[in-house]
Amino acid sequence: EDTREILKGQAQDALAEVGLTCGVIVRTAGHDHDQGDFVDDLKYLKRVWSEICEAQKAATPPSLLFEDLPLTHRLVRDQIRRDTDRVLVDSQETFQKLNEFAQKFMPDVAPLLTHYTGSHPLFSLYRVEDELEKALGRTVELKSGAYLVIDHTEAMTTIDVNTGRFVGAHTLEQTVFRTNLEAAVAIGRQLRLRNLGGIVVVDFIDMEDPEHQRQVLRTLERTLDEDPVKTRVTGFNEMGLVVLTRKRSRESLADMLQESCPHCRGTGKVKTAETVCYDIFRAILREARAYGAEQTTVIAAPSVVDRLIDEESDALADLEAFIHRPIRLQVDSSFGQDRFEVVLS
């Protein structure tokens, strides 16, 4: 309630400063922002509403008066803060559109926009692609040599902390404590980068000292305070796990940039070449009993055909003798390991 009253007072003062008599809704993202941020937001909304009213006067139905901004404009609107030094844009066309938008609706932001004309692509210059690869990976390396393992399922996301090659110069308890502190900071950053929502279970390395547990928890909470998305944290439970619940704001980074593998169908696993060979043998037997043919052709991935020629050659010869017809092997490099076809001719 105290926080609500503070936000209400800031909103009322901001309305008075901008000269508006309307009502406003302060969303959760407004928490920890000062009155200056509210004033900037209200000035922007006031200009947008004025534009809509002006467009409405000259419009004949049906007409589109307003639509949500494109991604680049939303980034400028939502992500630029007072501590932003500059915004680099490598497209001349996008820069011009953003500049026009900023001049009209966010004049304080316009001077920050810079058209980048360097020879190196922006993503390469600032290693954005490297960071994206890391944010999509299952393992996150920490500076000390420790690492996180992040697994996402339908029900929850699990984060496991491992010491890796970090052994430290002190006792085992101190090494574990320092690793968990470093991991707590990294976990907060990964939640934001990956935009992980729902239930997140963190398995820190076991600590004997209750004070160490409290410090790790406080570090995690401070890191999460920087997150604009609301996150609730429970303390260490009886199994030594920390459970977070983070509000789902939009698709996760993986959902936006990746799709399920057509071979493993998102499971991350495929049948072994040996298993596929025996699937092929059973398929040949079924086809031989059902249809009469002079020759059987097996089309499969290179790894499967290699195994049929080498380790399974005796079994293949026995099968040819059993069905009284030759079995021809054909490699198709486009096939996944668990895909094959049995063709009768």
Pairing-aware structural class of the strands and helices? alpha/beta
The beta-strand count equals 11
Rg value: 30 Å
Relative strand content = 15-25%
Tell me, rounded to a whole number, the average pLDDT.
89
**Kindly, what is the distance between the CA atoms of the first and last residues, rounded to a whole number of angstroms?**
79 Å
Helix percent band = 40-55%
How many alpha or pi helices? 12
Largest sheet: 6 strands, mixed
Inertia-based shape? extended
Could you characterize what this model shows?
The protein is of the alpha/beta class and 345 residues long. Helix content is 46%, strand content 15%. It has twelve helices and eleven strands. It has helices at 2-18, 35-58, 71-79, 92-105, 122-125, 128-136, 172-194, 210-225, 253-257, 273-290, 302-309, 313-323; strands spanning 87-89, 113-115, 139-141, 147-152, 156-162, 198-203, 231-233, 241-246, 296-300, 327-331, 340-344. A six-stranded mixed β-sheet has the order 3-4-5-6-8-7, with helices on one face. α7 links the parallel β5 and β6. α1 crosses α2, α7 packs parallel to α8 and α10 crosses α11. The protein is extended and about 95 Å long.
Give the tags:
345 residues, alpha/beta, 6-stranded mixed sheet, 3-stranded mixed sheet, 12 helices, 11 strands, 46% helix, 15% strand, extended
Short précis:
This protein is an alpha/beta fold. It has helices at 2-18, 35-58, 71-79, 92-105, 122-125, 128-136, 172-194, 210-225, 253-257, 273-290, 302-309, 313-323, and strands at residues 87-89, 113-115, 139-141, 147-152, 156-162, 198-203, 231-233, 241-246, 296-300, 327-331, 340-344.
